[in-house]
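ARCHIVE CARD
Drawer: 12
Card no.: 0347
Subject: one protein chain, sequence and derived structure
Cross-reference: see card 0346
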Amino acid sequence: MKKTLFYISGAMTLVWGISHLFPTSGVVEGFGDISSDNKLIITMEWITEGFALIFLGVLTILVTRTDMESKLSRNIFILISVMLISMAVLSLYTGFRVNFLPYKLCPIIFSFSAILIIIGMILRVNSSGMKK
């Protein structure tokens, strides 16, 4: 059960990251007539968030698959959760305020993914009988 939570979190984060890559040109066009530099910056930032989410999702899956019981794995899961929560807070104060559904989903998906990891870590500690 606990591994399933980590896999779901990793898969959700990975899929949401991949989904960021496809609409990039449409997002940039949505800003209207802006300078080439601004178009490149928006493109870079949009793709960077997608890559970051893909990385976090793959990392979650790989750590779960290889050695999720070590102290290093626990620390990696904590860092992934902190990053996802940080991204959720940032999205809550920026994209969530935009009247476009995918932007409003970001803080929800990031938070839910982090919560799944945290619950999985709690279950891991409780099932082992001691903190590792």
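Annotation on reverse: The radius of gyration is 17 Å. The chain has one domain: 2-128.
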